[in-house]
Predict the 3D structure of the following.
Amino acid sequence: MNRNATRNLVGAALWAYGITAMGGFFVLSGRWLASAPTTRDAIHVFEHNEHGSFVYYNAEQATALALLFMTSIPIAFLGLFISPKKNVVSRASGLAWRATWEADDPKRMSRWGYLSGALIALGLVFVIREPLIASLIDRGVVLNIG
């Protein structure tokens, strides 16, 4: 596999992972928000501000949502940055900037990258999440985005 095909595969996988993980964040957040208590109790101690309404998550929920939110966007942009491009046109005006380009993917490797990135994200969000988060919590790592 040449460098261009590798960059297309990895870039597309990272982009798809980031977008799918952000979707997983919204799915889990919506599911947990509906059942989250509005007052702090012995288990639900991590405050979350949802558009002015405060709810409380447990350590697993807070850490899972924080990890998904904090990693999905940078990983998606990293995938976009890695992907090879051709015919790049960039324009800047004052504070505005935009760029357009064509994908440089003659072997059409990006479709496999999109598929693998999405499957990895779905597996991580809905299958591996619980033991991964439990091991982090056992080591004293608890995150909360508030």
Notes: The first strand starts at residue 46 and ends at 50. The mean pLDDT is 89. The longest helix spans residues 3-35.
